[in-house]
Amino acid sequence: MANSIYKRVLLKLSGEALAGKDGSGINTEVLHQIANDIKDAHSLGVQIGLVVGGGNIFRGVAASVKGMDRASSDYMGMLATCINSLALQDALENLHLDTRVQTAIEMSEIAEPYIRRKAIRHLEKGRIVIFAAGTGNPYFTTDTAAALRAMEINAEVIIKATKVDGIYDKDPAKFSDAKKYDEITYIEVLNKGLQVMDSTAISLCMDNRLPIITFNLTQKGNIARVIKGDTIGTIVRS
Ligand code: GTP
């Protein structure tokens, strides 16, 4: 049944999402639940590019705060995204989905190098393309990698999976009167310092008018709901 309102999207998952309640590493049960959700969304007829973070394995910024060289720790974080990408590829292929992993840092024994035109070709053939190793550069987050790849593959929207059901004016875990936005502008997100994505990623989306939808991944079926156009979560646009 094809009732996606989008032709092509970029799905951004945090590395922590793969850890589930374990807090770190990869929880295979959670991994398979996410893969099933992606399969349901894909069956709606949408082309999916995927970027996953690496924070469940290694957080570059946190290590640099503790004295590690920032570039070295960021490279370690990029390698962590490759591990998560291979795990997701395996879980998706277990569900008989066609996938390709492309890495921004060449490791051709393990995966294809990132080649934009090839990625688009894979998407056109219905393959889920997982973009690994961030942008290949230190000092850039995987959110920025997601924004960049979304633009490069002409995705219509970034779908950012989180642990909360949208963007709030303050932390809903700490404040019972926190107010959820259904819609918010890029500039408001930047001015209010809301933790949606880092400012580089938000600015890139703003300059190129790429909408971002944030939603709660922990609720089963939510990726498909977003793809069908259900108004869950928060949309960021101009
Ligand atoms: P089409 O020919 O367009 O249908 O794409 P394809 O990906 O099926 O063809 P290709 O011959 O490029 O790839 C065949 C398999 O080899 C796929 O599973 C690719 O992911 C994999 N592959 C292609 N290039 C590389 C590479 O540089 N490194 C690794 N490790 N695998 C690669």
- Average residue pLDDT: 96
Radius of gyration: 17 Å
CATH topology-level fold name: Carbamate kinase
Bound compounds? guanosine-5'-triphosphate
Helix percent band: 25-40%
**Describe the biggest sheet?**
9 strands, mixed
Q: In CATH's first tier, which class applies?
A: Alpha Beta
Whole-number total of structural domains: 1
Q: Strand content of the residues, in percent?
A: 15-25%
- General shape: globular
The string of secondary-structure elements, in order, is EHHEHHEEHEHEEEEHHEHE
Strand order across the biggest sheet?
A: 4-3-5-2-1-6-10-11-9
- Number of distinct beta strands: 11
Q: Which residues sit in consecutive blocks of at least 5 with pLDDT less than 50?
A: none
**Number of helical regions:** 9
CATH superfamily: Acetylglutamate kinase-like
- Span between N and C termini? 32 Å
Features:
11 strands; two-stranded antiparallel ribbon; 238 residues; nine-stranded mixed β-sheet; binds guanosine-5'-triphosphate; Carbamate kinase; alpha/beta
